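Example record for the data management plan.
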Amino acid sequence: MLLLGFKTQAQKLTVTTIYATAQRVTREIPETDRTYSSTTLREVTPRLEPEVLMLSTNKSKLHFRIQGNISSSGHQVRNVSGIRYEKGEQNDKEITLKYYVEIKNKPGKEGALIKGYNYTKDMSYRIPKGVKRLKIELYEDHLNLSAATKSKCIAVKTFDF
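Corresponding structural encoding:
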């Protein structure tokens, strides 16, 4: 059997929804001896912490995962459109890589039980010879907001070789 045009999904951006569920809560207030019932939303899907994780490494290649979450609920609809790479500065034996999570704000209303989105992407980087330290910075970049908003650094990870 011969496989032609075989592709892997290794470097594909994966976005999953963070769901919430309605939960009935009953509270008793001791001063008035009354009980009140209310409905609250509790998140069912755990949120991924924004970070850079090392998956594997060898002498010339580093495999790592970029992960995080964004909030999106009510009249604030936000979607992850992609992750952009920019090579940062290179000092003697250190390279800084910058990755920007591109977030688009859309007009409209999000579903009542949707609280946000988790995102993950597996990446690989070929390590140049002589490099002893690799620093990876992760930023959030809101695309269609005013130009006055700067990209916010949400995670920094340093790998020593």
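Summary line stored alongside the record: The radius of gyration is 21 Å.
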